[in-house]
Amino acid sequence: MRTTSRYRATARMIAAIGVVSLAAACSGNGGAAGGGDAANYPDENITIVVPFSAGGPTDTVTRMIAGPMAAKLGGKIVVQNVEGAGGTVGAGDVARARPDGYTVLMHHIGMSTAPALYKSLGYKPLEDFETVGLVTEVPMTIVARKDFAPATLQDLVTHVKANASKVTLANAGIGAASHLCGLLFQSTTGVKLQEVPYQGTGPALTDLVGGQVDFMCDQTTNTSGQIAAGKVKAYAVTTPERVKSLPDLPTTTEAGLPQLKVSVWHGLYVPADTPPEIVQKLSEALKVALADQGVIDQMAKLGTAPVPAQDATPDAHRAKLDEQLGTWAKIIADSGVKVS
Ligand code: MLT
């Protein structure tokens, strides 16, 4: 990420840097300014900013596609975690980055909820970004610490209604997918719970396995392994159909909470005014990555799948973002949640 005075973004939080190196022969000298030169793009490292902690669901999906994308582009991709405020810190930094294709953002449903939750957000999703393409839509699971008393989703509802002031609900900050699902759970059951915010659901899940928090709602790309290993208790998945990789896990409808439906769509973004030829190169590389058998297999193992090729495009992504901004503005206004 290259912004002049905003290296504080880097100082603020760089949790983890991984380099997916590729055809070194075709990589540029890595240092020189790209300057939005579409013909020679990429001639230095591309950074994909993940606005949540390393090892979490958004980070996992990003690192899956980074390799095949870099191979198609013939360059290097660096994954950088810039955490904070439910993903709005990392998104804000990319909005202010140079529009030259070397700073890319992986974000999810949180891009469409933040304007309704934050009075002073510092960016406008439709105006300050170019959409590159959708990536995947991940189901969520309701999971609890292994020794938590409730055995079923209905038991959980009864338990939280009887012990609302004592039960802790983890999430990745206001506007994060885990927060939204938690909001839906609370508005569906009519309880207000103690929310415990983290910088991502990666660290939240670690604490859940360790018994420090009671339950949370999180993406299958993060919870599948712990569920399969029996390290957490799993109550339901928030999609209309069961997830193939978790065949024994009922849907929220089967488990008696049909209103609790949500899945987490993800997409890639670059700063507004990034040359359209560069956006097209990134979108083409994304399509190649989503057609990669290795990516398809990894996603299936973690309960999700790539979007169809026609959705991995700037226009389809922009249409989704536009629709979701409207949808969540209403849901959040009705829920009465506000952040100054
Ligand atoms: C993460 O990567 O930590 C999650 O996407 C956080 C969330 O939105 O719940």
Automatic annotation (TrEMBL):
It holds the Pfam family TctC. Keywords: Signal. Residues 1-32 form the signal peptide. InterPro entries: BUG (IPR005064), Bug_dom1 (IPR042100). SUPFAM superfamilies: Periplasmic binding protein-like II. Belongs to the UPF0065 (bug) family. This is UPF0065 protein in gbd 5'region. It comes from Micromonospora noduli. The lineage of its organism: Bacteria, Bacillati, Actinomycetota, Actinomycetes, Micromonosporales.
